[in-house]
Design goal:
The complex is a heterodimer of chains A (507) and B (309).
Chain A lengths: L1 H16 L8 E6 L8 H10 L7 E3 L5 E3 L2 E6 L5 E6 L13 H12 L10 E6 L3 E6 L6 H4 L28 E7 L3 E6 L12 E6 L3 H9 L5 E3 L3 H7 L5 E16 L9 H9 L3 H9 L28 H10 L3 E2 L5 E3 L2 E2 L1 E6 L5 H14 L4 E6 L4 H8 L4 E7 L7 H8 L13 H12 L2 H4 L4 H14 L2 E14 L2 E2 L16 E2 L2
Parallel strand pairs in A: 1-10, 1-11, 16-17, 16-18
Antiparallel strand pairs in A: 2-3, 4-5, 5-7, 6-7, 8-9, 9-10, 11-19, 12-18, 12-19, 13-14, 14-15, 20-21
Helix pairs in contact in A: 7-9, 12-13, 13-15
Chain B lengths: L1 H27 L4 H10 L6 H11 L5 H13 L13 H36 L4 H15 L2 H15 L12 H30 L2 H8 L4 H39 L4 H10 L3 H29 L1 H4 L1
Classes of the chains: A alpha+beta (507), B mainly alpha (309).
């Protein structure tokens, strides 16, 4: 017994005397995203966020484009030829200079892989002495925004294998990769030859932790310095902790219900409005998401130009919803579920647990739809079931979180989702006016350029609000826990950059 | 020697069965593999028909199953496990990395459980019904009843958040091992302790044990010469069974503490329909069972002379 006791005591004392968890100059970042490989097409977003790789174009926190590896850009009068002037004196992490040929090489490889650039009408990418020229088959005003997307990051020619697969991450950023251990971690150190303001913190690590509880506990224990994507319950708890500061910012991402508008139950705007009126957005926002408010239109106020403050807000009114459905010929059946021509108003709601709040919101929606006589079965499955169901025409309802900043200009997402339809947007719904407006915006046509395109955007928002091919529920907030003793932390609403190069350890 | 041959045959049978079973299961899962792989590769924001088509074209999915199975088995015989459909890395390389991480964690957990459980169980078994026996029953029942994920969270809350002794999660240094190994090991120790206690109590009540005391050996000598060896037999036998529990626990714990191990990899591979990874991982785990059982058989033969005859 004494032997056991002394062993335990020795063990406990050894633990107590062990070094504190962070006594180094290393800044530890934790987020849920796993690293598949050095490949920009699959994991590029982590390398840009960690400040390892950079893109030609950058974005400020208002969503305005600003110079990145390109210092300026201009388009020809016919809108088909873009010239990007490249920053001089930029070196890759292997010491090689960033030449126009290297940039062209990286973009040509990106163009051959799935991603937004693959869909662009690019005829040729060519290198000039100090510039890159992209020739298009038709005008595309938003082209620079596409080149701010992480999958267009510029890596050194030596980073790619013969087949175009990236084998190493040789970027130009303020941090240089020193160790990559897929799928969960990487390490980087400040790059001495960085072209811009050098990073203050000498070393950073990144760890992917899938579970939100664990991430929150890592923040609370001081085990991590910067923790992204906190779950609502943890935000409440961490806000009371002295060890961390919680930051939160609205991001251009919306939680919405995607409706199959070709489904015989939902093929009228009135039917979709009825479903929308059944949703208590404020209740979901406060009780499930712990946000101050729900969404009263698709685009959040932070999405400049796209948020239309003139729109009548989406309301919660189950009685009005029932009246609309009654006018469509639906009558309550024996179990309270609506019936029409012998058919029950029963639908399947498909969602995915990658965002932990989605299944919870689905459960609340099931109750709220039942209250107006619509039976919903929840299918929480792989995220790909929503676009796959869209393609097969089998999807009824999909609950999802759509990112309008896949490229940092919502026109990219609007184009792929609504003009005319897309895997994550409208389904069985087609509106020629939106298609014309969105394509005119994308091309930068004179017809929409008068007020910077704001009228066209407002019109698109208004049509989506009236027709509801997707039903908005909430605007997302990004949350971040920062350890006490770290200065300069901010959240990039466009989810492109962790802002590590600006951070300092407090003295 | 016969036993080793039998285990070798068993290993081959397991390889064939696991290979056929995972192949059949992965083929019969609902949903289109190309879409699932695209989701695994590009993330939910970027799964589109174009991405799924690109995956489909690249991997030549959806062909007849018999040639695909024959091809996989043929590759396997040449020790070629293929390439992960999601990461593009060789499966063998990924498994080697992940299996190592899991193996060390599992060994640490078993080591801890053996350090904690059997000594307490033996002490309790020497005085059945005593205070130690009764409190051990209480504690081990409670520990066994706590699910491993909850145990991990409790340990993180106490050891990391409250006391700041250990990293809450992560991988890389020796300090990172203690918490997940404890989370896994405490449940195992609870059962180890019960088995050791029952075995010790049974042996201590036997005539040969009393005789040894009667012929003049001290308590310590009797325990050393006649007790421990006999307690070790049921403990070791149970260790083989525990391996199953351990693998199950490793899958859960690895996800919680962000451990880059084989359990974590298996869950993700199933989710994103990464068939070569699932097949490779399942095969390695299946062969692991055979290997552990073979090692335990060998150890039992050494400890229990009756088994050798």
């Amino acid at each position: 017994m004494t032997l056991f006791k002394s062993t335990v005591m020795t063990g406990l004392m050894a633990l107590a005397l062990a070094a504190p968890v962070r006594a180094d100059n290393v800044l530890d970042v934790v987020a849920p995203f796993e690293i598949q490989s050095p490949e920009p097409a699959t994991s590029g977003h982590i390398f840009t966020r960690m400040g390892i790789a950079e893109t030609l174009v950058d974005v400020d926190d208002q969503g305005r484009l600003r110079p990145g590896l390109a210092t300026a850009w201009a388009v020809s009068d016919d809108g088909r030829s873009w010239r990007f002037v490249l920053r001089q004196g930029v070196r890759f992490h292997d010491g090689s200079p960033m030449t126009a040929a290297a940039v062209a090489h990286a973009l040509e490889i990106a163009q051959g892989k799935p991603g937004p650039v693959a869909d662009l009408p690019i005829a040729a990418i060519s290198a000039e002495e100090d510039a890159l020229v992209i020739t298009l088959t038709e005008p595309r005003a938003a082209l620079p925004a596409f080149l701010a997307e992480s999958r267009t990051q510029i890596l050194a020619p030596a980073a790619y294998g013969a087949d175009g697969q990236a084998l190493a991450v040789i970027g130009t950023g303020p941090y240089q990769l020193t160790a990559l251990v897929p799928p969960l971690s990487l390490r980087a150190s400040a790059f001495a030859d960085y072209w811009g303001q050098p990073a203050h913190v000498p070393e950073v690590t990144y760890t992917a932790i899938g579970r939100a509880e664990t991430r929150a506990l890592m923040a609370e224990s001081g085990d991590a310095d910067i923790v992204f994507n906190l779950d609502p319950a943890s935000v409440t708890r961490l806000s009371q902790s002295a060890a961390v500061q919680v930051l939160s910012v609205a991001i251009p991402r919306a939680l919405l219900v995607k409706v199959n508008a070709a489904h015989p139950f939902m093929d009228t705007a009135e039917a979709r409005q009825a479903l929308s009126l059944a949703i208590d957005r404020a209740g979901i926002a406060q009780a499930v998401l712990r946000y101050p408010q729900g969404a009263d239109q698709l685009f959040a106020p932070a999405i400049n130009g796209w948020h239309n403050s003139a729109l009548a807000p989406l309301a919660y009114d189950p009685a009005a919803a029932r009246a609309l459905l009654a006018a469509q010929g639906w009558e309550a059946g024996p179990d309270g579920i609506l019936m029409r021509a012998g058919q029950r108003f029963a639908l399947t709601l498909t969602t995915y647990p990658d965002r932990p709040e989605l299944p919870l919101v689905a459960a609340v929606l099931e109750q709220q739809f039942r209250a107006i006589g619509v039976a919903v079965t929840i299918n929480s499955t792989n995220s790909s079931e929503i676009p796959a169901g869209h393609q097969a025409g089998t999807l009824d309802l999909g609950l999802l979180a759509r990112n309008f900043a896949l490229i940092p200009d919502p026109i990219g997402t609007v184009l792929s989702d609504y003009a005319p339809t897309g895997d994550w947007g409208a389904m069985g719904w087609d509106n020629p006016e939106i298609v014309a407006l969105a394509q005119a915006l994308a091309r930068g046509d004179a017809s929409v350029s008068e007020d910077d395109g704001d009228a066209a955007r407002a019109r698109i928002s208004a049509i989506l609000q009236a027709e509801l091919p997707v039903i908005p529920i909430a605007w997302y907030r990004q949350t971040l826990a920062v350890a006490a003793g770290i200065d300069g932390a901010t959240i990039d609403p466009w989810e492109r950059d962790f802002g590590l190069a600006q951070l300092r350890f407090a003295e | 020697m016969n036993m080793l041959v039998a285990r070798l045959v068993q290993a081959l049978a397991v390889a064939l069965l696991v290979g056929a079973a995972t192949f059949a299961m992965m083929r019969s899962l609902p949903g289109d593999a190309a879409w699932r792989i695209a989701a695994g590769r590009y993330g939910y924001d970027n799964v589109t028909a174009a991405a799924a088509d690109a995956v489909h074209a690249e991997l030549g999915l959806g062909g007849p199953w018999l040639p695909a199975f024959a091809q996989w088995m043929g590759d396997l015989l040449r020790l070629d496990f293929g390439v992960s459909l999601v990461s593009g890395q060789p499966v063998l390389q990924e498994i080697a990395h992940q299996l190592g991480a899991s193996l060390w964690l599992a060994l640490a957990a078993v080591g801890l459980s053996l350090l904690i459980g059997p000594p307490l169980g033996i002490l309790a078994g020497l005085r059945p019904g005593g205070w130690l026996d009764q409190s051990l029953l209480l504690v081990s029942t409670a520990l066994k009843a706590v699910p491993q994920f909850l145990m991990a969270l409790i340990l993180i809350l106490v050891l990391s958040v409250q006391w700041g002794w250990l990293p809450a999660a992560g991988y890389g240094t020796a300090r990172h091992f203690i918490l997940p190994a404890l989370a896994l090991g405490l449940g195992l120790a609870a059962v180890n302790a019960r088995i050791a206690r029952d075995a010790m109590a049974r042996i201590a009540a036997m005539p040969f044990y009393h005789f040894a005391r009667w012929k003049g050996l001290s308590r310590r000598q009797v325990l050393w010469r006649h007790g421990l060896r006999n307690v070790a037999v049921p403990l070791l036998t149970y260790l083989g069974l525990q391996f199953v529990l351990l693998v199950e626990g490793v899958v859960v714990i690895e996800s919680i503490v962000g451990w880059p191990g084989i359990g974590h990899a298996l869950v993700h591979a199933v989710f994103s329909r990464d068939v070569p990874m699932v097949q490779g991982t399942a095969l390695v785990l299946g062969l692991g069972f055979v290997l552990v059982n073979a090692l335990i058989d060998l150890a039992l033969v050494r400890i229990d002379p009756r088994k050798a005859q």
